[in-house]
Amino acid sequence: MIRAYKFLIRPTVGQQQALAEMLRDHCSLYNGALQERRDAYRHVSKTTVRYGDQSVQLKEIRAFDAERQGRWSFSSQQATLRRLDKAFAAFFRRVKSGEKPGYPRFRGVNWFDTVDFPKDGDGCRWDPTPHDPVTRVRFQGVGHVRVNRHRPVVGTVKTVSVKREGKRWYVVLTAEQARPEQLPATGSAVGSAVGIDMGIANFLADSDGGFVPNPRHGRKAAAKLEAAQQALSRCERRSNRRRETAQRVADLHRKVRRQRLDHAHKTALGLARRHDLIAHEDLRIRNMVRTPAPRPDPEEPGHYLPNGVTAKAGLNRSISDAGWGVFLAILRAKAESAGREVIAVDPRNTSRACPGCGHTAKENRPTQEKFHCVSCGHTAHADTVGAINVLRAGLVRRDARQG
After folding, report:
1. Which domain holds residue 72?
2. pLDDT of 306-343, one tens digit each?
3. What pairs with residue 117 in β-bridges?
4. Is the pTM of this model over 0.90?
């Protein structure tokens, strides 16, 4: 199995400058390759330039511009061209499926923050010393950079990437390793299975009646973010003050992202340790955060009727702040490592169906939190009812799969 590791690196002043130059030159290569594709399609009878054609030209580019392009790893430059090729592949896929195409765009120097090395030892070298507290990673054209390795790397390192986040630099490794030892079974078939219902008021509710509060990291940082963004809007463009203020805004966003990831990791790990089977709703988050379509007024052309876009914007902001998609991805990864089973079920009517008699009606949920069955009178928290129904649907899917 493949696992990723991310470590903070501590380059010297000279190494920071070399790393920034490496990003700048790879960005220039990316933009040049994109420009070639655009020009070939527009002006040479819709000719399509592919990765293989541009990869062949690399030797000539490196020989022509040896001072800039020639000093960096050949394989890392190939990875940059593959990155552009993947962007075009995604563009054509969206065109065929009828989605918003999103043609690949040119990258500014501040928007190109990662350089990939497809193979350890080719343009980069990860220090494999297991017990030395000082770990270093070597990049061609930069030198040996000190790494803050806070945990051991298990397995064989396959790829290495260097990434810039604000003023900090990171190295990202992917390592191939044997499947880790799985956690022992937790107990009986009933006690080891759980259903979870994702929400806004509570981050999740489980079928055992437990709740995980929603930390709302984005909302807590909203005031500071608003003040920093207002200060940014008042800064003169290309000024030092604007650059510092933009860095402060980025740092606030980065802190919220780290807090959200930390909460997701801890919650997912607790579920994986306590339960053998975890059932959750198969949420289509992208559809849930869509902006409502405008409603033209048939009586007044050029005018529109209220469509609830303001209220929907608040809901969309809360859904994004909860980070359901990130949490579910982390949950699946931790469950795989622990030997647990994760099942996604259809979320329709999970909070409207009575777990006692099975009656399904929208009147069963008179408020956001309360569930009261109009048929049998069963009363419970609506999120707990949803989690129970999710668990039952998950057990049915598991039995059908095994049978």
Report:
1. 2-176
2. 888 888 888 899 999 999 999 999 999 999 888 889 99
3. 160
4. no
